[in-house]
Amino acid sequence: MVPTLLNKKNQFAFVIPVYNHAGTVAQVVKDAQDLRYPIFVVDDGSTDNTFDQIKDIAGIQILRHPQNQGKGAAILTGFAAASAVADWAITIDADGQHYPEDTRKLIKAIPKKTRPIVVGARAGMAGKHVPWTSSFGRKFSNFWVRTSGGPAISDSQSGFRIYPLPEAFNLKTKARRFQFEVEILVQATRDGIPVMEAPVRVNYNPEGKRISHFRPFVDFLRNSSTFTRLIFTRIFFLK
Prior knowledge:
- This protein is an alpha/beta fold.
- The chain is 33% helix and 16% strand.
């Protein structure tokens, strides 16, 4: 359990999960530093030289998993660390698809006296440069998130988000890989935490250099398993 925070109202920190993104993570971190928030990079068992690319960047905290545990596990590790200095966590992917300065748009979207999850809805996801797996995966995920009792949003797979702490850390999520990011939206809705969106830009690198660890067949099965479990609990255990 993460302790209730004292004297940290409206403080933000970046949580950047990374797995084998040696070519992009350093620039993502440096761009995030421009916002002057604490930065926690969680190296989820990378087997390339990711750590070497960031180990000398001053002013950040690097947390390392000895072995790959999954994106969700890395995010939770970051939540636990960030909660010591902030009551909001900004998650951003390490592959360079997001623009950290768009964090301002997400923060601006937070209503007064409300502590929602704010999802960065990526603009331009219908372009020819966007991988079909990303376009299809987003539509698939959006439908099943709603069917599972989650929020009706347009980009349930976006990793660029703001989460309230410690509320998000304490949600009863079971998935620890990519599926964590869709499950937490459903569990937040069930727990009465609002979920909302704000538009952000996306860079899918038309030259095809973006590294993705999404595996269509394996992750489709994992997504299906997660949604089956969520729908089952919605039908049989929730009033």
